[in-house]
Amino acid sequence: MHIAGRFDPGRKTVLYGAGQLASMALALWPDDTPRPLLLIDEFSRERALDGIPVRRLAQVDAGLLRESQVVLSAFKLDPFAVAEKLAERGASIGLTVYDLFESTIAPRFSNGWRLDDADPEVRRALAAGRVLLADELSRAVWDDVVDWRCRRRLRPDALRRIEPESDKYINALTRELIAAAPLLVDGGAYDGGFLSSAAALVAPQATLVAFEPDPVSFERSCSAMAALAGRRVEPRPLALGGACGQRPFYSTGGLSARLVEPAHANTAVACTTIDAQPWPAPAEMPAALGRPVLKLHIEGAELEAIEGAARFIGERRPLVMVNCSHNADGLLRIPQRLAQLGLQDIWLRTHALFGEGVTLYAL
Predict the structure, then answer these.
(1) DSSP 3-state helix, strand, coil percentages of the chain (rounded to 5)?
(2) What is the pLDDT of residues 285-323, one digit of tens each?
(3) Cβ distance 139 to 360 under 8 Å?
(4) Does the first or last residue of the chain, that is N or C, have fewer Cβ atoms within 10 Å of its Cβ?
(5) CA–CA separation, 293 and 338 (whole Å)
């Protein structure tokens, strides 16, 4: 299936899906772009979302559908089934919400990024990254993502490879390593969910460190950490990057908060590197435990943060877990850089469609 449309601000817009992604889409909707006329959702019990009506497909006028661009705003629905239902009404999926944002607010929400694999350098980088992957499932996920990012083509069997959202970061690949970790470093703690879940696995003497620069999300993560009674937890209100200092930041109080260029910032935050932070010396870590864990989900600054953690990675050989959805670095540079730093076993897993939720694990 190809979903190769481009957003047209002059056409009426209908969103298909009224869940988490649609809520995020409406929260980030550009001020200078007409808002959707309605949202279609077969399962929602809500009559409206952010003031916009929510309807079942059968309740929507077929003529309105045909003259509108239908934007898929759900990453857990089967898009093939959605396309079939729309075709019965003479309509089709025009684009995804990620494509819409690529056209309108890419500096603040870049997940709609595309690659041109006709470019020889891109082609070489993709080939070099693929050969680093440790298993067939990782290579199949890689091919799914490349097909989407380069060709906006969704392969039917890609649906079979999507794993539960609850398995992101803590899963069959990582559970034993996380349980044995003396130090867990969460870059992009958001609401503290990862460390809260990991705390149920790790030894009591393990240290849990949460980096979160967005002020609202930092308070949320502090509340989550405070609930971990008896645990060694350290919330740090800092962004992670490749250098220390104040950095322009787009604060949302929720999803997609990120380091940005000055023209797109609404605040500034303190930024640090993993290598500049104080860590217990390896000799001070519990001898019975295993390797540290470093998780990076920082909205596009992942490669920069890896550069700022080069000494930490080289000396401590952590399990590194990286969200690779936010920009082309996830395919073109991050696997290669981690391999250069000595992490030779690299896996990919995916937890959503359209190149989203792609997580790299390196050891």
Answers:
(1) 35, 20, 45
(2) 776 689 999 999 999 999 999 999 999 999 999 999 999
(3) no
(4) N
(5) 14
